[in-house]
Amino acid sequence: MNAGFKDHFSGHASAYAAARPGYPDEVFAWLADNAPACNRAWDCATGNGQAAVALAGHFGQVIATDASAEQIANAAPLPGIEYRVAPAESPGLEPNSIDLVTVAQAAHWFDRPTFYDAARNVLRAGGLIAVWAYGLFEIDAALDEVIEDFYRSTVGPYWPPERRLIDARYATLDFPFAEIAPPEFVMRCQWTLDQVLAYLRTWSAVQRYRKARGTDPVSAIESTMSRLWGDRDTREVRWPLYMRVGYRD
Fold first, then answer.
1. Out of 129, 140, 151, 164, which residue is the most buried by the measure of CB atoms under 10 Å away?
2. pLDDT tens-digit profile of 173-183?
3. Is 58 in contact with 25 (CB distance < 8 Å)?
């Protein structure tokens, strides 16, 4: 494993795969429309393959890499996707072979100058790169207030410093490409309360809290969340996406 790899998810890779939301297909359709071709895409830090699976509907071949063998083991197999264990900074891809590079919810963990050099090397002339992230989700005012307090106060001290880039909506992320403005995209899921709680337990800060204190911080807000949730089976959960997109110049 890459010595510089910041691994916050391998220890709960199966839970991560089960509990993370999916991205809207409109994201990938827009990227395909703006890429120079739709022959080959590289989904870097693919995790459990959420973005890779969606890309496979628009690109002839998807190379999906992750530095975590545990994440790759939990990725969804699909014709047209080749999964590989490889760090973001050294993917082992041929130069000038990729039309689109994507990084979903992971660029803040990278050695970005080295990764960007790798991306430039593998992208074809005029190739497109897109990195994006999502922060706190939204349900309604009362539930959002509980979650924000949990995020900032309860587990706030356990977030790695890279989380500040997400809090800034990727606006402060270094991104040395010929940038274009994407549309506004929002992930939406109809989730039960149990699904929301399972998702909270995949947060890296929650995992670090549990390791440091030996208790599950999510359990402390379950009763409050249940009361505010009410008797509805599901609610809409929304995550605005923060995207940076640009061309290799």
1. 129
2. 999 999 999 99
3. no
Q: How many CB atoms lie within 10 A of CB 82?
A: 10
Q: Given the DSSP bridges, would you call strands 98-104 and 40-44 parallel, antiparallel or unpaired?
A: parallel
Residue 237: is its pLDDT beyond 70? yes
Cβ distance 34 to 2 under 8 Å? no
Query: What pLDDT, on the 0 to 100 scale, is given for residue 2?
Result: 47
What's the length of the chain?
Answer: 249
**Integer Cα distance of 137 and 168 in angstroms:** 15
Domain boundaries, the chain: 10-247
Calculate ∠ Cα 182-39-106, nearest 5°: 50
Percent of the chain with pLDDT over 70: 92
Kindly tell me the burial class for residue 221, based on how many C-beta atoms sit within 10 Å of its own C-beta (0-12, 13-18, 19 or more): middle
Q: Which helix (H) or strand (E) holds 225?
A: helix 222-229
Long-range contacts of 172-177 (CB under 8 A, 24+ apart): 173/107, 173/108, 173/112, 173/131, 173/244, 174/112, 174/113, 175/131, 175/244, 175/246, 176/116, 177/116, 177/129, 177/246, 177/247, 177/248, 177/249
Specify whether the CB–CB gap between 108 and 133 falls below 8 A.
yes
Which of the 8 DSSP states describes residue 159?
Answer: S
**Do residues 45 and 65 make contact, with C-beta atoms less than 8 angstroms apart?**
yes
pLDDT exceeds cutoff 70 at 84:
yes
- Which tokens belong to 133? 């992230």
Question: Which fold is adopted by the domain 10-247?
Answer: Rossmann fold (3.40.50)
Collapse the DSSP code of 64 into the 3-class scheme (helix H, G, I; strand E, B; otherwise coil) and give the result. Answer: strand
Please check the confidence at residue 133 and state whether its pLDDT lies above 50.
yes
